[in-house]
Amino acid sequence: MTSDDLAEIHRIHQLKYRYLRYLDLKEWDELGGCFVAEATASYASAPELDGREAIIGFLRDAMSSTTLLTSHKVHHPEITLLESERASGIWALDDRVLVLDAGIEIAGAAFYQDEYVRTSDGWLISHTGYRRVFEEVRPLPQDSRITLSWWSEGGMGDQSHK
Amino acid sequence: MTSDDLAEIHRIHQLKYRYLRYLDLKEWDELGGCFVAEATASYASAPELDGREAIIGFLRDAMSSTTLLTSHKVHHPEITLLESERASGIWALDDRVLVLDAGIEIAGAAFYQDEYVRTSDGWLISHTGYRRVFEEVRPLPQDSRITLSWWSEGGMGDQSHK
Amino acid sequence: MTSDDLAEIHRIHQLKYRYLRYLDLKEWDELGGCFVAEATASYASAPELDGREAIIGFLRDAMSSTTLLTSHKVHHPEITLLESERASGIWALDDRVLVLDAGIEIAGAAFYQDEYVRTSDGWLISHTGYRRVFEEVRPLPQDSRITLSWWSEGGMGDQSHK
After folding, report:
1. Using the beta-carbon criterion (under 8 Å), do A17 and B108 form an inter-chain contact?
2. What are phi and psi of C26, to 5 degrees?
3. Which domain holds residue A98?
4. Are residues A146 and B132, on separate chains, in Cβ contact within 8 Å?
5. Cα–Cα nearest to C69, from A81, A86, A107
6. Tens digits of residue pLDDT in C17-70
């Protein structure tokens, strides 16, 4: 474990953190920049996705609505540097999704198993996917209220659930 | 990205982690030691705070009660080392606040945008603030119970919500 | 803070992350491999545990059922390297436990205070324990549903709470 290895691991962490920031802020073009063109993804029970276009298209369709509010947080990175400018990584995910239209919330835990490749643009994701420890769906309480959100410009857009 | 850079980033992480430990444990004087005197803060919809005294006074007033229990957890640090012993940082926040007196809980996600400065006492916060991805308020379920807390000395102080 | 220090801290992080992965995935033998034989543990209000066998036995008894689903996530590591191949660490814990049989969920925040020792097998845990910031128990909502879990092979085992 050299100083160079630590720097590479740090760069892979930065890639993952950027990816998750773009995901929760619904910045789809920037999110696309985290993947190589031929990347693949397998998100729990979702269909297998082949290619950056398919991945971003899937996420954009599923999550663009600002009535769907998400928090995806990853923890416990276990990164392994491999030969040929490649690396793999395990991350623990906790996620929480508020689906305001449907009046439900989804919360769960999972483990990501990722693959990364170092390109002339730095480290990028070549494969990502996770398998659930558990996923739970429950109704939002009737008097739950969203009091602030990124998209409502500073909380002026208070929207009661019901 | 040198070994020295990694060490500086590590030190900034340590500052943030200490800050959050003091916050959730309501150790206000120690929390003050994380800021330069002229620090500023902008916490979501709270008023702009100018100076360490104002920041700590605000937090102390808002959060000293042990009927208000908090978990502030930060993730995904993206630290940028700047010139002149300065740095900036983006962090993803998940927070959860139980307001036992009012019978509500507040949970949300946000992104911090911080500024740091290296002083003779090490790295300190010169600006901190966050903007909400979302913030939700809901009633505590009627039969929610706090079974242990830091301030009740080992859980002897079981206090039902209602 | 040398590059070697950063590498040692990195290795201690990896130990803790592996420990938590084994815990949430109920891999008890592998979990045992994270401790020295004479390790001790003090988990909040649980009895003091003396020796690796006692620790793993306790966790196995308490958490083997796949109707008990857990997410233990640690944050904010503050690791101190000590003399004689020893180290200590503070970590912030958020945990969430779904007890499907009993129809309750337990969620809380805590601070771990760990001790580590470097052995011929790398860094291992010589003591672990945490004290609660808060712990809350509440009933699972009647129409909460587990829609996926690690042990139900890809979500085929949808099990409604009631």
Report:
1. no
2. 60, 40
3. 3-160
4. no
5. A107
6. 999 999 999 999 999 999 999 999 999 988 999 999 999 999 999 999 999 999
Say which residue the tokens 């010589």 belong to. Answer: C126
SS (H, E, C) A64-117: CCCCEEEEEEEEEEEEEECCCCEEEEEEEEEEEEEECCCCEEEEEEEEEEEEEE
Nearest to C10 among A1, A137, A139 (CB): A1
Residue B23 belongs to a domain with what CATH number? 3.10.450.50
Rg (CA), chain B: 17
Q: Indicate if the pLDDT at residue A107 is higher than 60.
A: yes
Tell me the nearest-neighbour CA distance from C3 into chain A, angstroms.
6
- With H, G, I as helix, E, B as strand and everything else as coil, classify residue A55: helix
Please give the model's pTM, rounded to 2 decimal places.
0.94
Query: Measured between CA atoms, how close is B113 to chain C, in angstroms?
Result: 17
Nearest CA in chain C to B16: C76
| Average pLDDT, integer, range C84-109 | 97
Question: How many domains is chain C partitioned into structurally?
Answer: 1
DSSP 8-state code for residue B143 = T
The 8-class DSSP code of residue A5 comes to H
In which residue ranges of chain B is pLDDT below 50? Answer: 154-159, 161-162
pLDDT band at A154 (very low <50, low <70, confident <90, very high): very low
Task: Give the ipTM of the model, two decimals please.
Answer: 0.93
User: Residue A25: which residues within 8 A CB-CB, separation 6 or more?
Assistant: A150, B111, B133
Q: Is the dihedral of CA B102, A96, A65, A91 positive or negative?
A: positive
Judge whether A141 and A125 are in contact, CB under 8 Å.
Answer: no
Compute the nearest-CA separation of A138 from chain B (Å).
Answer: 14
Cβ distance A150 to B131 less than 8 Å, yes or no, reads yes
Residue A153 in this model has a pLDDT that exceeds 60: no
Percentage with pLDDT > 90 across chain C? 90
Total count of residues recorded for chain A? 162
Predicted local confidence at residue B55, as pLDDT: 98
The residue of chain A with its CA nearest to that of C16 is A76
How far apart, in whole angstroms, are the C-alpha atoms of residue C27 and residue C128?
18
